[in-house]
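Lab notebook, page 48
Experiment: co-folding of the full assembly
Goal: obtain a model of how the components sit together before planning crosslinking
Operator: M.T.
Materials (sequences as entered):
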Amino acid sequence: MEKCISDSLLLQYLVDEIDDEESERVKDHLNQCASCQKRTEILSEERELKQWQACHQRRQSDESSQNHPFSQERLDRLFNSTISSIQQSESQIPRSIPLSKQIRPSNQDSSISIGKELKLKPIRTIGQYQLIKKIGQGGMGIVYLAIHSRLKKQVVLKLLLNKDWDNANQTQRFYREMELVGQLDHPNIVRGCPVYC
Amino acid sequence: MNYGSDWPSTHITLLKRVRVPTDAEAWQEFVKIYGPLIYNYCRKFRLNDCDSEDVCQDVFQQISTSLHSFEYNQKLGRFRSWLGTVTYHEICRFLKKNQRFKNQSGANGLSEFIYEQPGEIDAVWSDEFCSHIYTTALKNIRTEFDDKTWKAFELTWINDSNSKDAADELNTEVPWIYKAKCLVQKKLKDEIQRLSFDSVVFQK
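Observation: model returned without errors.
Model output:
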């Protein structure tokens, strides 16, 4: 049998950095030489990767560590709410209200002076409602503080983002939320009312 | 933020890019990498589905704000530690804000539990982080290899079979098994580094 292969050549062979002829020679030798096989296994050992694998195995052996499924839909929702909140934060608008809290205004919110708000120029009008300011935005929709132009009554208006009307799933979620809000009547939960635009 | 000389440019790009709030593409990738990790970590603290998503959003917003003020320093924590700290603080903030958790768990409230055992929390976070990055990297690189190469890697790396047995099972030679394993290992290592930002160290 020919002379054993050097460590550096073995490493070059493993990562395909030698020509075909040399590669063939190393392969033939490796097939016959137990000593070079052993050295190759040692050389190709990745201790750092082993540590990552060990962490993973340790976690897998813990039965209480089962992950909850993270669907594409959840990912999209999280991305939309994240990008909205960081962009909103960047433009110096107060921190966005998390999606699940959007229909639960605090007592402090409801005590905003209507007279003061009316002096502010509305952003735009939707039906009979003048939008005063954006309160928050999540992945699914935007919540505005608004005032009914005739009744002068302050309301919170939730709008589904334009792009989401094409998403049947999101639209159904929106309608389901409206139905649920309609069934609730509690001083700490905002009351739902129909808007015809 | 500064970077070590061995830091691949793609990593710099993503971390630099998420500093810009309008770079939706970068944020999409960042949320895709870390969203599931942070979400599942929140669930460990018995936060429900919606609350966990809200905390994820808070964590990302905090990251967006804080990334501006962090600088490279080898002596201080790695990205994973910093992310763990941000996540942990956001969970604490959420629990403090929501007293109902205390009411549910009585005298041994969850918020008391997490404040009293920070060392244990670090170890749990570290394992969660490594496990998530490891499995995500495996999944990401899978499509880059043919079935036979992947099988060689699975047998020798995941199942810890010896190379001779793997070669027999795949009807090939031992040197081919070495090369296949080495090839996938290298790719896995690169992908883990890409996903974990492990070469970047932060200092406030």
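Interpretation: The CA atoms of residues 154 and 160 of chain B lie 8 Å apart.
Next step: discuss with group before ordering constructs.
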